[in-house]
Amino acid sequence: MPKISDIRFEVPLPDGVTASIDGDLLTVRGPLGTVSRDMRHPRISKSVEDGAVVLAIGLPRKKERALIGTWEAHVANMVHGVREGFRYRLRIRYSHFPMKVLVKGDTIVIENFMGERHPRTAAIVEGTKVEVKGEEVLVSGIDVERTGQTAANLELATVIRNYDPKVFQDGIYIVEKG
Questions:
Q1: Which of 4, 13, 111, 172 would suit a FRET pair with 21, their CA atoms being 20 to 30 Å apart?
Q2: Whole-prediction pTM value?
Q3: What share of the chain has pLDDT > 90, as a percent?
Q4: How far apart are alpha carbons 151 and 145 in whole angstroms?
Protein backbone atom coordinates (compact mmCIF):
# COMPACT_ATOMS: atom_id res chain seq x y z
CA MET A 1 0.00 0.00 0.00
CA PRO A 2 1.42 3.40 -0.89
CA LYS A 3 2.33 5.71 1.95
CA ILE A 4 0.00 8.63 2.43
CA SER A 5 1.96 11.71 3.38
CA ASP A 6 -0.84 14.24 3.81
CA ILE A 7 -4.62 13.99 3.97
CA ARG A 8 -6.82 17.01 3.33
CA PHE A 9 -10.62 17.07 3.20
CA GLU A 10 -12.67 20.06 2.12
CA VAL A 11 -16.38 20.42 2.83
CA PRO A 12 -17.81 23.20 0.65
CA LEU A 13 -20.13 25.76 2.21
CA PRO A 14 -23.12 26.61 -0.03
CA ASP A 15 -24.62 30.08 -0.34
CA GLY A 16 -26.16 31.33 2.88
CA VAL A 17 -24.04 29.06 5.11
CA THR A 18 -21.03 30.31 7.08
CA ALA A 19 -18.60 28.56 9.39
CA SER A 20 -16.23 29.75 12.08
CA ILE A 21 -13.67 28.06 14.29
CA ASP A 22 -12.96 29.26 17.82
CA GLY A 23 -10.23 27.07 19.30
CA ASP A 24 -11.60 23.55 18.88
CA LEU A 25 -15.25 24.57 18.51
CA LEU A 26 -16.64 24.52 14.95
CA THR A 27 -19.80 26.58 14.47
CA VAL A 28 -21.91 26.42 11.29
CA ARG A 29 -24.63 29.04 10.71
CA GLY A 30 -27.36 28.87 8.10
CA PRO A 31 -30.93 29.92 7.35
CA LEU A 32 -32.44 27.43 9.84
CA GLY A 33 -30.10 28.11 12.76
CA THR A 34 -26.70 27.37 14.27
CA VAL A 35 -24.98 24.06 15.06
CA SER A 36 -21.74 23.79 17.08
CA ARG A 37 -19.45 20.84 17.68
CA ASP A 38 -16.23 20.31 19.62
CA MET A 39 -13.62 18.90 17.22
CA ARG A 40 -10.61 18.42 19.48
CA HIS A 41 -7.54 16.52 18.31
CA PRO A 42 -3.90 17.53 18.73
CA ARG A 43 -2.77 16.51 15.23
CA ILE A 44 -5.74 17.41 13.03
CA SER A 45 -5.89 21.03 11.90
CA LYS A 46 -9.15 22.78 11.13
CA SER A 47 -9.68 25.97 9.14
CA VAL A 48 -12.19 27.85 7.01
CA GLU A 49 -10.75 28.78 3.61
CA ASP A 50 -12.42 30.07 0.43
CA GLY A 51 -15.94 29.02 1.36
CA ALA A 52 -15.03 25.56 2.65
CA VAL A 53 -14.19 23.88 5.94
CA VAL A 54 -10.76 22.27 5.61
CA LEU A 55 -9.60 19.33 7.74
CA ALA A 56 -5.96 18.34 7.30
CA ILE A 57 -3.32 16.08 8.86
CA GLY A 58 0.25 15.29 7.90
CA LEU A 59 1.66 11.74 8.13
CA PRO A 60 -1.51 10.21 9.56
CA ARG A 61 -1.82 6.96 11.42
CA LYS A 62 -4.60 4.50 10.59
CA LYS A 63 -6.94 5.67 13.36
CA GLU A 64 -6.39 9.32 12.46
CA ARG A 65 -7.25 8.62 8.80
CA ALA A 66 -10.51 7.07 9.97
CA LEU A 67 -11.21 9.95 12.35
CA ILE A 68 -10.70 12.66 9.76
CA GLY A 69 -13.15 10.90 7.42
CA THR A 70 -15.69 10.73 10.24
CA TRP A 71 -15.22 14.41 10.95
CA GLU A 72 -15.80 15.20 7.28
CA ALA A 73 -19.16 13.42 7.53
CA HIS A 74 -20.02 15.35 10.73
CA VAL A 75 -19.27 18.70 9.05
CA ALA A 76 -21.32 17.71 5.98
CA ASN A 77 -24.24 16.79 8.30
CA MET A 78 -23.92 20.15 10.05
CA VAL A 79 -24.07 22.00 6.72
CA HIS A 80 -27.06 19.94 5.57
CA GLY A 81 -28.83 20.54 8.90
CA VAL A 82 -28.59 24.33 8.86
CA ARG A 83 -29.77 24.44 5.22
CA GLU A 84 -32.54 21.84 5.05
CA GLY A 85 -32.85 20.23 8.49
CA PHE A 86 -33.49 16.60 9.37
CA ARG A 87 -36.85 14.90 9.74
CA TYR A 88 -37.89 11.50 11.06
CA ARG A 89 -41.37 10.07 10.51
CA LEU A 90 -42.58 7.47 12.99
CA ARG A 91 -45.74 5.36 12.84
CA ILE A 92 -47.90 4.45 15.85
CA ARG A 93 -48.94 0.77 15.64
CA TYR A 94 -51.42 -1.01 17.91
CA SER A 95 -53.75 -3.96 17.50
CA HIS A 96 -56.17 -3.94 20.44
CA PHE A 97 -55.48 -1.15 22.93
CA PRO A 98 -55.44 2.26 21.23
CA MET A 99 -52.44 4.31 22.31
CA LYS A 100 -52.61 7.99 23.13
CA VAL A 101 -49.40 9.93 22.39
CA LEU A 102 -49.02 13.46 23.77
CA VAL A 103 -46.24 16.03 23.84
CA LYS A 104 -45.90 17.64 27.29
CA GLY A 105 -43.01 20.08 27.58
CA ASP A 106 -39.76 18.24 26.94
CA THR A 107 -41.24 14.72 27.15
CA ILE A 108 -43.51 12.54 25.08
CA VAL A 109 -46.17 10.68 27.08
CA ILE A 110 -47.51 7.37 25.77
CA GLU A 111 -50.75 6.37 27.50
CA ASN A 112 -52.58 3.01 27.37
CA PHE A 113 -49.70 1.16 25.70
CA MET A 114 -50.67 -2.55 25.67
CA GLY A 115 -53.40 -1.66 28.20
CA GLU A 116 -50.87 -0.56 30.84
CA ARG A 117 -52.21 1.67 33.59
CA HIS A 118 -49.06 3.78 33.97
CA PRO A 119 -47.96 5.97 31.06
CA ARG A 120 -44.55 5.53 29.45
CA THR A 121 -42.40 8.56 28.68
CA ALA A 122 -39.64 9.45 26.22
CA ALA A 123 -37.33 12.44 26.45
CA ILE A 124 -37.23 15.11 23.75
CA VAL A 125 -33.64 16.21 23.26
CA GLU A 126 -33.13 19.99 23.26
CA GLY A 127 -33.29 21.57 19.80
CA THR A 128 -35.80 19.14 18.30
CA LYS A 129 -39.48 19.60 17.55
CA VAL A 130 -42.04 16.81 17.88
CA GLU A 131 -45.54 16.83 16.36
CA VAL A 132 -48.20 14.14 16.72
CA LYS A 133 -50.64 13.95 13.80
CA GLY A 134 -53.05 11.05 14.18
CA GLU A 135 -51.09 7.82 13.61
CA GLU A 136 -47.84 9.67 12.78
CA VAL A 137 -45.19 11.33 14.88
CA LEU A 138 -42.88 13.83 13.15
CA VAL A 139 -39.51 14.64 14.72
CA SER A 140 -37.52 17.49 13.14
CA GLY A 141 -34.43 19.54 13.93
CA ILE A 142 -31.17 20.88 12.54
CA ASP A 143 -28.78 18.61 14.46
CA VAL A 144 -28.85 15.04 13.10
CA GLU A 145 -27.63 13.51 16.36
CA ARG A 146 -30.24 15.22 18.54
CA THR A 147 -33.06 14.55 16.07
CA GLY A 148 -32.09 10.89 15.72
CA GLN A 149 -31.75 10.46 19.49
CA THR A 150 -35.25 11.85 20.07
CA ALA A 151 -36.67 9.41 17.50
CA ALA A 152 -34.73 6.55 19.11
CA ASN A 153 -35.98 7.53 22.59
CA LEU A 154 -39.55 7.34 21.31
CA GLU A 155 -38.98 3.96 19.66
CA LEU A 156 -37.23 2.53 22.75
CA ALA A 157 -40.01 3.70 25.07
CA THR A 158 -42.38 1.19 23.44
CA VAL A 159 -40.17 -1.91 23.48
CA ILE A 160 -42.18 -5.00 24.43
CA ARG A 161 -40.50 -7.58 26.66
CA ASN A 162 -41.56 -11.16 27.44
CA TYR A 163 -43.96 -11.35 24.48
CA ASP A 164 -43.49 -12.82 21.02
CA PRO A 165 -42.53 -9.87 18.75
CA LYS A 166 -44.09 -11.62 15.72
CA VAL A 167 -47.48 -11.62 17.42
CA PHE A 168 -47.37 -8.41 19.49
CA GLN A 169 -46.26 -5.69 17.10
CA ASP A 170 -47.55 -2.76 19.10
CA GLY A 171 -45.19 0.20 19.37
CA ILE A 172 -43.90 3.33 17.70
CA TYR A 173 -41.51 2.67 14.81
CA ILE A 174 -39.28 4.80 12.56
CA VAL A 175 -40.57 4.48 9.01
CA GLU A 176 -38.72 7.30 7.24
CA LYS A 177 -35.52 9.28 7.72
CA GLY A 178 -34.74 12.36 5.72
A1: 4
A2: 0.88
A3: 73
A4: 10
Q: What is the DSSP string of 51-113?
A: TEEEEEEES--HHHHHHHHHHHHHHHHHHHHHHT-EEEEEEEE-SSS--EEEEETTEEEEESG
With vertex at residue 117, the alpha carbon angle to CA 161 and CA 175, rounded to the nearest 5 degrees, is 50
What structural domains and CATH numbers belong to the chain? 6-83 (3.90.930.12), 86-177 (3.90.930.12)
pLDDT at 125 over 90: yes
- Sort 161 into a burial class: Cβ within 10 Å, 0-12 / 13-18 / 19+: exposed
List pLDDT tens digits, range 141-175.
999 999 999 999 999 999 988 888 778 888 999 99
- Cα 43 to chain center, whole Å? 27
- Kindly report, residue by residue over 87-109, the tens digit of the pLDDT: 999 999 998 889 999 999 999 99
Backbone region of residue 51 per phi and psi (left: phi > 0; alpha: psi in -120 to 50; beta: other values): left
